[in-house]
Amino acid sequence: MAATRVRGHRAAHGAARDLPGGTLVERVRAALDRHEAGVRKSTEAVAGDDAATAEAPGSTRPEAATGNPAGTAGTAGSAASDWEVRVDDLWCTATLRGRMLPAQGWKIHVSSATASAAEVLDRVCDVLVPRGVAFKCAADSEFLNMLNSREAERSSSGKFITVYPRDDIEFVELVDALDLATRGMVGPGVMSDRACRPGSIVHYRYGGFTSRARLGNDGAYRPVLTAPDGTQVDDSREAWFAPPPWAPDPLAARHTQQGKDGKGGVLVAGRFAVTAAIRHSAKGGVFVGTDTLTGADVVVKQARAFVEVDHSGRDARAALRHESALLERLAATGITPRQVALVEQEGTLFLAQERISGTSLRAWVMRHAGTEPRDAGGSPDVPWSLAGGVVAELLRVVGGMHAEGLVIRDLAPTNVMVTPNGELRLIDLELAADIGSFAGAAGTPGYRAPEQRAGSRSKHARGRGTHPVSPEADLYSLGGLLFLLATGTDPGLPDDVQEPGLSPRSTVDRIAAWLDLAARHGRTARLLAPAIRGLLRDEPGLRWDLDRVRAHLDAVERRGGAPVPAPGRSRDAARPHPWHNPAGRADEPSGPALVDRVLSDGLLHLAATMTPERRDHLWPVTAGGAAMDPCSVQYGGAGVLGVLVRAAQTPTLGPALRDLLRERIRTAADWLRERAEREPVALPGLHFGRSGTAWSLLEAADVLDDRELARQAAEMALKVPVRWPNPDVCHGAAGAGFTQLRFWDATGDDRFRQRVVACADGLLAAAREHGDLMLWQVPKDFDSQLAGAAHLGYAHGVAGIGAFLLAAGRATGRGAYLDAAMAAGRTLSRTVRGDDGAAWWAQGPADPPGVRLVHWCSGSSGAGTFLIRLWHATGDPLPRDLAEQAALAVRRARWHCGTTACHGLAGNGEFLLDLAELADPGAEDTYRRYAEECAELIASRSALLSGRLVPCDETAVGTSASYGTGLAGVAGFLLRLRHGGPRLWIDPVDAGTRLSGMEPIDLDRAEAEEAGDAAEDASADEAHRPERPAAAVTMTTAATPVTPVAPVTNAVTAVTAAVPDAAPSAPAPAVPPSAASAGTSGTTEGGHAA
C-alpha cells in the first residue's frame, strides 16, 4: 500500500529536490565508509601502541581493558563490505551480515523534517553503525516527503528511520544515544509511537521486525506478533500508542508525568469542546465542537508540526495561519466562515471557525443529480431549476475572491458549502494565494488546473516546482464544478501516457465522449457543455473568463432555458439506440467500434502488464488490493486469468490475439499455482478465497489442454472448507459451494457432489428467521470485518446464498435447497425499496430508509442476478418482476456509477445481459440496449496508455488489472456483450465444459477424512429428505448469445449424452449437473421428467 501511495504522491506533487550532499542512500553508504575509515585509523594507532609496549608485562588492548561494546561491534562491522545494503522503491535497509534479528520487539522510529533529513540520518548512522545495529530509512527524499504529507497513513506518518535493537537492554541504550545525538533537530510526531521525551524526534513502539503476516478470514494479509503463550495476534498499527498488554514499556517510568496516551474527549485551549471528527489525516484532523464561551457550533482545524511541507519550506501550521489571515481579510465579504480563534497547544496549531449550516456541494449534487429523469433511463445532471442558481452563486463567489486579489487554487466540491437558502460559502482556503504570487503544485485531482500540477513548466516560474498564481486556475476549477453539475460525477480520469514524441490528449478531448453522452440525456448538461469546454482548456489564456460564462448563461435565460439540441440527435429521448439503428450516424462519438477497441486494447494491456517476476502480485493493483491475497478473483491473478481464458476461447477475437493470450495464460497459471501452494491457509470464498483460484485454474487447464493442471486445480478445490462461519459468496461457504458445483459438473467426481451437499446443508442450518425474513448472519465473534453482518446482497448476503442454494437444488434435486432459495427470494421481495417502478435494496434490512444501492455486491444488480434465475427455475412471476424493476434502477443509476464489476457499470451490465438472455423473449433487445449504454459510459472513461484505451479502475483516476475493481472485470463484461458466452463466476453448471477422463485424485489424509464425513452427512440427508416444493422448476437453456463461443474439446470436453431419468423416489443421481440436463428440453424438475 505504501508503494501505491508514494506513486500517487509523486504524480501529484512531483519529485522532491535533491538533498545537500547526495541522496539518502548515498549518505548511508558514506556512513559505512566513514566508519570503516575510522576503524582502520584506530586499528593502525592501536597497532603502533602495541609495538611500543609489546614487551611491557601485563599490557592489554584498550577494547579488552574497557570492555567497550562499541569497540567490539565496530570490529565486527568494521568494513563497509560487512554490511548488506538493500534498496527498493521505498526503503534503504542496512544490516550487518550474519546478525540475526529477533522476530519482534521494541523498535525505534526517528522522524525528520525533509530539509534536515540528511543531517539527521548522518547523526543516527554515527550511533548505529559502530554498534552494528540494523536499520532502514526512506530511500529518497521523495518518499520522505510522502511520509511527512497528508497522504501518509496516520500510523505510518513521520517514520523516516526505523531501528531494530537486539533486546530490551540495547533498546534503552539506543533510545538515549539517539535522543542525545539528535537534540535540536526537528521532525513530525509519530502518531503510532510514544516520544522518548517531549519534543524529541525519537519515538518507539512494540511491533514486528521481520515480515510476518497471516492470511486473515477476509482475504487480507495482516502483520502478526507471537504472544508469550505461542498464539499469533495482530500487529496492530493504530494512530496512537497501543502496545500489546503482555509487552510492558521499558521506559514507562519516564512517562508517568506526561499524561495518558490514547483517545478521549478533548478541550482545545480550554475553550473548544471537540465532539466529533469530520476527517482525520496525517496533517491533522478537522473536528466539530462547541465554543464553551458562547455556546456556538464551531469547526476546529488541526495542523501538526513539520507535516505537509511545501516548496518554500512552510508546513501545515504555516498554511493554517495563512488561512486564518485570509478569514480575517475576507470577513466583510460573506464568502467565507467567520474566524473565532487561532490557538497553539503543545506544538500543534488549531483554528476555530464558524460552522456553516448546510451541506457540501458534493453532497448536494449527490442528492439532486438524476432526480428529474426525462424518461425511464434517467438523467445524469442536477435539474436546471436547481443547478442554474448554483452556477450563478459560483460565479459570484469566484468573482468576489478575484476582486479581493485572491485565487482560490482549490475550488473543489468539498470546499464549497451550500447553505439552506441556496447561497454558497468557501471553506478550506489554506491554498488560496494573492494574484501574481508564486506557489507550488496543489489542488484536488480533477479540479486543479494543469499549471497547478507537478511537472508543469512556466517561463515565469521562480524555482523548481513553482508557478505564478493567476485567476485562470480558478476558471479551470469552475469548469470542473460545472462538469459535476452536468454529469453528477467528478471530471477525473487517469492521465494519458503516450508514446515518445506524441502529445497527450487535451482535457477537453479526454472528456469529450463522456460529456457528449451526458448532453444527449440531460438538459443541464446540454446547457453547460459549451461553458465546460471553454473553461477546461489546458492553456490558461484560452479559457473562458467569468464574463463570457455569464453571457452564455444570459443567452440561455433569454431563450427561456430552452436546451440546444445535441448535434445529430433529436429532442426525442426515446430515439432508438444507435447500436440498433442502421440509419444512425456513422460518426457517433461512442458506439460498438469504440467499445470493441476498448475491449481489444484492454486485453492487450493485461497481456503487457503482467509481472511474473514479482512475488507480491501478478498484475498491478490499487492501494486497497496491495495487502490482499494475490491469488484471489477480486484483487488477485485468478480473476484476470479467468477473463484471459474466456477471451482465448473466443474465436471471433482473431488468432493472433488468442495466441498471445494463451502464452500469458500459461505463465499466469504457473505463477498462481506456485504462489497458492506456498500459502497454507485455504479460505473458502469465491472472490477472496481459494475457491476462485481453483476454478480459474480449471478453466486455464481447458484452454491449455493440461490435464496435470486440471488435477492440481481439483486437489485445490478439495482442500477448500465447505462449512465456514461466514456463509456468503465472496468470503464464505456459498462461494465454496459454487466452486464445488463447477468441479462436479466438470469432472463427474462424486466427491464434489458430496461436498456440495455438505455445504448446502450447512447453510440451511445457519439460516435464521427474523419475522418474515430469512437471513444469514456472520457470527459476532468471528474474526472478520463482517462479524455480525446480515446482508441482503449477492456478495455477502441473501441474494448470493440464495443463488447457490438454487443452483445446488437444481443440480442435486433436493427440495430443501429449493425451498430455502425461494425463502431467500421472498426475503428480497419484502425488503425491496421501490420508487416509480424501480427496485433498490439496502445493505441490510435495518438500514435507514434513504439507503438505496444498485450494485452487484450490494443492491439491485446483485439481487436481480439471483431473482431472474429464481424466476427461470420456478416460474413464479414475482422474482421476474422484481428483477426487471431492479434493471430500471440500474439503468437510471448508470451515470453515477464507477466502471467496475464489483460495484460499477461492468457488474451492472452483466446483470442486464442476464435479463437479455433469461427474461421474456420480447425484452432481449431492451436489456441488451441497456447493457450497451453501460459499455458506452465505460469506454468514455478511458485513458490512452501507450496507444491503448484503458478504462479507469475503482479509483476513477488510475488503472489496475483486478477483476472486481479494475480492468479485468470490465473486459469480461465487454467480451460477453460483444462476443457472447456465459457469465463468469455466477453459473457453475453453465460455466464451461466437462473434464473427461481425468484420473481419480489421490486424497491426502485430511482430505480423505473430510470426504468421508461429507459422504456420511449426505447419506443421512438422503434418508430424511423433505418433500419437493410444489412449484415447477424451469430448466430451459439461456437465450443464445449474439456471438456464441464455440465449445472447446481439449482437456475439458462437453458431455453430450443425457443421463436417463431416475424414478421419482430415488435419491438424486450422483452425476454431474450438466449431464443431468444435457440433451433434454422442456420443463424438468431436478433431472426428473415433469
UniProtKB/TrEMBL annotation:
Q: What is its EC number?
A: 2.7.11.1
Which GO BP terms sit in this record?
A: peptide modification
Q: Name one GO molecular function term.
A: ATP binding
Q: Which residues are recorded as binding Zn(2+)?
A: 857, 902-903
Sequence ranges of Low complexity compositional bias:
44-56, 64-79, 1073-1090
Q: Which segments show compositional bias classed as Basic residues?
A: 456-465
Where is each Protein kinase domain found?
272-555
Give the start-end ranges of region Disordered.
35-79, 444-470, 558-591, 1008-1027, 1062-1090
Q: Alphabetically list the UniProt keywords.
A: ATP-binding, Kinase, Metal-binding, Nucleotide-binding, Serine/threonine-protein kinase, Transferase, Zinc
Question: What top-tier enzyme class does this entry carry?
Answer: transferase
One family name in Pfam for this protein: RamC_N
Q: Per the record's keyword annotation, is Iron-sulfur included, yes or no?
A: no
The protein's superkingdom reads Bacteria
The biased composition feature labelled Acidic residues covers: 1009-1020
The UniProt entry, under InterPro entries, shows: Kinase-like_dom_sf, LANC-like, Prot_kinase_dom, RamC_C, RamC_N
Fetch the PANTHER family from UniProt.
MITOGEN-ACTIVATED PROTEIN KINASE KINASE KINASE 20-RELATED, SERINE_THREONINE-PROTEIN KINASE NEKL-3
Spell out the protein name for this chain: non-specific serine/threonine protein kinase
This chain is encoded by the gene named lanL
